[in-house]
Amino acid sequence: MPDNRIRRIQESDVDAVVRLCHELADYEKAPQDCHLTPAQLHQALFADAPALFGHVAELDGEVVGCALWFLNFSTWRGVHGIYLEDLYVSESHRGSGLGKALLAALAEECVARGLERLEWSVLDWNPATEFYKALGATPMDEWTVYRLADAPLQALAHP
Predict the structure, then answer these.
(1) Which of 83, 88, 132, 146 is an active site residue?
(2) Rounded CA gap, 154 and 136, in Å?
(3) Structural domain boundaries in the chain
(4) Which of the residues 35, 68, 86, 104 has an alpha carbon 20 to 30 A from that of 22?
(5) d(CA 121, CA 128)
(6) pLDDT tens figures, 8-30
(7) In this structure, what DSSP letter does residue 80 have?
(8) Residue 88 bears catalytic tag
(9) pTM of whole model > 0.90?
């Protein structure tokens, strides 16, 4: 049964979700790296053909959590999946079941669409790793995430 505290993101939620993304950056000890603006998030979510999707957790009319995600594709399975870019619940609402409810909404999305994977990355020190394992999520220890950004990205694009 769907949790009535969780719903699809709406245009009126953009400012609150941007705030939550900045809170997440603070939590992950990288506030200087988060440059997201409401205009950027609005464009990504509500363009004619959006590539980003989201759900929010709402309590008493206030957005206190969010899940931002996009589709990925498995060439081995031959189907799309969901990649969860950000999952965040405000500190004062952790332990309320909202994180699990957001993940459950994404699992429902996968099942309804015939998507076979729900994946995300977690910092090694994040205490939520135990929560994810308790849900049955498997850490992909043999994989290392690589990223090109900023000057190295530019250098590769324009040698």
Answers:
(1) 132
(2) 39
(3) 6-157
(4) 104
(5) 11
(6) 999 999 999 999 999 999 999 99
(7) E
(8) no
(9) yes
